[in-house]
Records
---
Amino acid sequence: MTKEAGDAEIGCRVENGGPSIPEITVLWITAGLGCDGDTIAMTGASSPSLEDLVLGNLPGLPKVNFHNPVLSPSCGEDFLKPYRQAAEGKLDPFILVVEGSIPNEENKKEGYWAGFGTDLVSGQPITTCEWIDKLAPHAWGVLAAGTCATYGGIHAMEGNPTGCMGLADYLGWKWKSKADVPIVCVPGCPVQPDNFMEVLLYLIRQASGQAPMIPLDEQLRPTWLFSATVHEGCDRGGYYEQGDFANELGSPKCIVHEGCWGPVVKCNVAKRGWMGGVGGCPNVGGVCIACTMPGFPDKYIPFLEEPPGAHMSSAAIQMYGKTVKTLRAFTISGGNKEPEWRKRTKKKSEGETGDQE
Amino acid sequence: MSTAGTSKIVEMSWDPITRIVGSLGIYTKIDFQNRKVMECHTTSSIFRGYSVFMRGKDPKDAHFITSRICGICGDNHATCAVYAQNMAFGIKPPHIAEWIINLAEASEYMFDHNLFQDNLVGVDFCEQMVKETNPGVFNKAEKTEAPGASIHGYKTIADIMRSLNPFQGEFYREALQMSRLSREMYCLMGGRHVHPSTLYPGGVGTVPSVQLFTEYQSRLMRYIDFVKRVVPLHDDLFNFFYEALPGYEQVGNRRILLGCWGSFQDPDVCDFKYENMNKWGQAMFVTPGIVVDGKLLTTDLVDINLGMRILLGHSFYEDWQSSETFVKTDPLGNPIDQRHPWNQTTHPKPQKRSFDDKYTWVMSPRWFDKSSGQHLALDTGGGPLARFWVTALAGKVDLGYVKATGQSVKIRLPKTMHQPEMEFEWKIPRWSNTLERNRARSYFQAYAAAAALHFLEKGFAEVYAGRIRTITPYQVPEEAIGCGFHEAVRGVLSHHVVIRDRKIANYHPYPPTPWNASPRDSFGTPGPYEDAVQGLPLFEENGPEKFKGIDIMRTVRSFDPCLPCGVHMYLGPGKELQVHHAPMFGIQNG
């Protein structure tokens, strides 16, 4: 099948402005060292959904030609055609999405750690590194999806044989695209679905002249998603403030003693939930293992032991927290009682207004 | 170029194979004159090294780490890892934690089969694809009424095919939306999808409450309303292919060699002790077992465990035959083979790909059958086919909503918004082939939903009784071994761990895809994909010039490949080979 999802008659008209380009291509490579979990997460997004993007259900979108191996109707060379065209500079503009960490193909004598498609001359796999080398210089922008692609992630754990790393480690932290856009990193293991789709939508709007340069922090994360900590958005933060900590999992209280890294991790999941506002991490009883952080996982293992900093800070809050909790208990107790006039009383003498019987 | 006495054999490959999870390539030799696949190799082009970098790590973290193996069924790994941790740490979680895990896993089956069947597999049966590969079949579909139209709403088979067109098709879009609803159900129990946050050795961190189970239940009933249309829709579609293409039962057909490692623990029986593993394995709500040539060989998890062998032959690794033996005997005193996952040492050796020698990162798991002395290349039937086949034959499961009869499995679904109460019956088919793997997938969506109704009742009962503690405390032992057996969405899943000095000394997960996507082993036996594709008759109407390989693609996808790695398909018109007599290709590389 040669027809890709975006080939349909689609696109919304907007009266004023509108996209400065008629169409844009998204080339997604899942052949880093990953698990395809970011692609699967992306299919779970609803704000916006994949259909919204591909069918043009949002005002002002250019036509989006979306290519991803997990969803593509076509296979093999048919599927690789736009990738090969882009590598030769014959497809413009496109956004390159990379999923999975980038192996070091130079740490061994021969063979490959990660490949994608076959070299038609040698019959050997084309390595993922070769694809990135060829595609990145032609891309309007490069988007790293998930913690593996952004910073290395679980597969870059100490003792790994592949020497893998994040995209910025591979291309350089100062790398910029031909449109002068830095690498955009959306970490998360996997990415929170809406976080990712929202950023992809932003980049499409920027590429089509409808949004300013994407605001990124030093770790190349979009600032509106990653400036707050897990703790700042966690609905269990109130327990922390009152010095009220769970002493085992399954409790609704704050779980820092159980190993939660939430107070020192940049991530919005405790606030946003995982899908459709449902789920998350410490807000629903799962310790934050810092899966969005560049230091993940090595700086946070063993996961199920109390972070050293949490011990000190949670001890410091005990006195204040317990006092405040006690005082609040009095106020709650007062507020738990209705005002005294809300009850059935006998009718007073005639002429006076009283409760209706 | 064909001359008398020779056949025209064309090399065809598809790399990457899309609409699966991970990296897979399929390399074939096809005889277009006789419309048959002569030879097939599968290759996976990615290596990550879990069993290497997990050495020395804290065993408490194993489920967090191994979840990352897979991006569509990572939670199956986390669950299986927790089972292995429970055994190694000598603990049994509270009942309510097991019901929560069962509910989480049920929603994973509901989600994953749904997304895979109707957004990935479905495209192989959609209008656009069938028109391109078998226009004659599409014309017939236009004229064929769908027997289940009154339930699923599509008048003809062609209407069903149109509804499966990517993004444009109504059912394609509906399935995509349902896959979100079922993932919300997962998130209620497991916190996050696909790498859960609330699963732990000893139980869960999820807070059980009336609210939790009610939120799950409301979504479940909407899913059940949907699945009542899914099953007849796929029955109509797949039955039509048998009818429209006589002989289609041979596509992807292979000897019945099915393995299922069981799913959904019964906390009344399961204590995670290896010594009692046969007993609690038999109580699982999907029965573990092995079916060979239609006969149930065993349902004993200890037998299953002891028979596991990891063979090399054509994979990019050095052997571990002379490496350390971690486990000499199991806790029952049975000897453990050096080729068993407990004793495997992974020595990766990247090298050039050569189909005569080493050609993939996948190893060759086999099951050693004592009675025949053979190393069986079991497949999982994509998951559901083996689960149903074993459960049906074993006749043990009876949940009210689900009942195994000895030759079938009955599934009863209560009244929902748009549909009355319905009963489906999955019956043992005549073939272990492409269409039956796919059909079983739809039925298993119903099975998982029906099982979830039972687990919900149990969960509510625990909450009503005030038994809401979700975790059993534990200490990591100085030395221990453990194993977990489970069903990942696409089939058998095992985790084997060896603990020394309170650290992981050895860890080997065996997901379904190494079983299914394995290369020829050291005995020359091809892996199941290779076996199912070799000898496959071609029904596609296109010649080599426009060949899509649709029958091959349908076959590979029927196994629900999930290599976080991958397979790729074909390029261009292909290279023509001069071949003398075509047959006997298959096993020459042994």
---
Amino acid sequence: MGARMQVVVVGGGTAGWMTAATLAMSFAGRLADVTLVESEEIGTVGVGEATVPHIRFFNQRLGIDEADFIRRTNATFKLGIEFRDWGRIGDSYIHPFGDFGHDIDGLPFHQYWAHASRGGADGLPTLEDCSLPIVAARDNRFTPPLENPRSIGSTYSYAYQFDATLYAAYLRDYAETRGVVRIEGRVDAVEQSAGSIDAVRLADGRRIAGDLFIDCSGFRALLIDGALKVKYEDWSHWLPCDAAWAVPTANAGALTPYTRATAREAGWQWRIPLQHRTGNGHVFSTRFTDPETARAVLMDNLEGEALAEPRMLRFRTGRRDRQWVGNCVAIGLSAGFLEPLESTSIHLIQLAIGKLIELFPSGGVFDPADAAEFNRAMALEYDRVRDFLVLHYCATERDDTPFWRYMRTMTLPSSLTEKIAEFRERGIVASYREGMFLPASWLAVYYGQRVMPDRVNQLIADIPSATSRAHVARVAAACASAAKAMPLHEDYIARIKAAA
Amino acid sequence: MSQIVAILGANLCGWMAAAALARRLPSDAYRVVVIDDGTSGDGLGDFAPVIAVPPALGGFYADLGIEPSALVRATGGGHALGVAFGGWRKDGAAAFLSYGETGAPLQGIAFHQLAGRLRKDGIHVRLADYALSAVAAQSGRFALEAPIAHALHLPIERYAAVMRAAAMNFGASCANAPFAHAQIDASGIVETLELTDSTSIAPLLVLDCSGSSARIASRTAPAFEDWSAWLPCDRTHTQTVSAAGAPPPYTQVDAQGSGWTATWPLGGADVRLTCTAGGEGTPFRAGRRIEAWRGNCIALGAAAGLIEPLHPTALTVLLRSLAQLIQLWPADRRAPIEAKAFNRFTANAMTGARDFVIAHKAAGHGVGASVDESGNTVLPDSVEAKRTLFAARGRLPMFDDEPFEEEDWAAMFDAMGLVPRRYDARADTLPLATIEQHFANHRARIIAQVRALPPYAHAMAELAAA
């Protein structure tokens, strides 16, 4: 083993500390020395307070104790996302972290439900009634899933809603304990030679040299853009929201085990309940509304008392053409931005970190094959998340504002057009090998936004409607009784806190 | 009134399809009718009188209520724990690819990555020494009841007869007379199939299992993607030679001239299949039909596409295609949405199978691979991407619906002597002794398991006596 590699992470915040913590756990003191440069003058974006279930595997890999993490980051549990006013004003559905029913004779449950509903909705449970995490979420209940795969209690997963600033601090603690050196300072210049970064220079004149540079500098993208000028693929014609107001409020009402996303006239509003406060924000498009109106929309639609003045962020949706170039890897907002409608920001960070570890250029050997694979996998992931986000906007009956009229009639990515046609006409949701959103997620949005299949598999259409109704009734009854046995979300959290 | 699903080809491919569909389709709504296409082919390429059935088909037989041992007994077939490759590697060494798992990961690090770490320290590692199936094969040991992944070698005619019986048992029937002619309307819908006794059948769907000639699909969907630029082998011939001694529980595949020869032990003799570029033998063309499903005709088996049988890909692709067909079961003869989804899947599956064979041939010293004027092997981009990343660090980019897993690719490249330049960096964070101990423990467990097995000949005698 040669000299240890010098890894420089530029930027703290969620991306920077998640990366530093993982590198420390995997390699610090053995293959690599990790230095993180951040400046307290520069705030973190910290919009990624809601997550998807993969975050649990990230924490487990670091050996983080769940109860300790819940206590120290003021975290709550999350079974899904409630979408209000998306298909039509007045609608509400939950995209759950779990399945709708179970396959019957190898065919998907939702098609049995669609078949049953053709015989009339009278007395037929809704598709939501056939998802345990939705039934539990609607009743503000939570308990971790069971392991026995035969039990209905195993048919869901869960994520967290947490204070991203506290999470970054938690990981900073973890990383520093494991040898990561934190340098306080502002990066002023980047030294490079032959397409590769040699060092970053700080405002106070210090020079930090390294073998591998991780750009976690957020929207500023100091290395990947500032120094290396890697092109940014702009997706704002498909996802025109380009700004957000964010404001914390005091908690009001029951502690929901889910995030909420409410569609607005020119964007949507998030609501993320934590133990000690609620995160709120309004994502909007400056093409269709102005910041002052957007601010008023947010402030007029808060449930609890505002705890601070709202802050505005601006962004441009898209991704870098390449996220790993030479000895620089962009992770987080420097690599691309997708609005937090499906809480994907932290997941995309986590995925990039996982790939970086798998393809780690130890010994300072930079093989173009590694970067090529990293770029292929990340581009595919961003593209597929993009398609899923666009689905929320195009699968709508709303035409009440110029924003919604644009969204429902715009030209879609061809990958998405084909996918929607297969569902709309035959109830087909093809699954893919890579890509975080499984068929159940697509189903939640389709049905939740009133896209019903014209027809289902003929082998299901052939059976009597009463048989399908009986399947649906059985699953709904099992979900109802399993949910009733769960504790309330706030009681479950109180128990964890009391056990400290 | 029930609708007819017509299967053209009373052969192995046709009866497999008939069994899968008759098992699944409600008999009050559908009749599965198999029609003799008038040829003696197997519908899967007619490569040899014997075929390798990979372990992944176990679930299919279980669903039909067929025990693997009953299948072997009824057909007079045998078992294969893997494939021994002779003359493929640049260094001349023999290689063994087993059907089961190789080694076990340690702290989330893949076994072959750990092997890379040991090799860097000069420790010689042969992955096959850590695969239960490989070690059992090399010691000539096997037991029917032992939990060892294996393929079956089945003689095609008798295998087809078992499938026919299974299909009939689930309600499929055989038409009274062979196929004569198809009436296809201007939009490509097969209206009727006329038989030689002047009767006719009006099908909902036609599954064309008539082999490479694709008697109906060649008319409804003639466009064909030719793969001979990457897979130049285009001739096969077989011979059966007498063999002395107990048969080995594996297949032998030797590189030879511009191609290769596979030897399958069967019924006390050896069946040899030789596959070459040019020369003597029955011609075939590697490639696939671009629209396997068009109108109401769905091409399956060799009618959908053909890859030389270096690996047992034909049955895997057939079974997956049938599973897709059931997922997409249409209401009408016109089903463009279903067809599009089906074609995307089969294109991915067949291309993935093709890539595995192309990569295998290119990875050794290029036996039967395609080369350009400067002597470099010519590879599709998808194979180039896999080979490049594996050579760099033992990982593989994986694509939608491909039939082989990342571990299969790693084992194949390793067996062909392609050694990654680097390995997973995490392997460097473990003490060398820990990795060595992990390898030694695994090897010891395998040896103990293999010791407990009887010789393969005993297992076969027991099977014959049962």
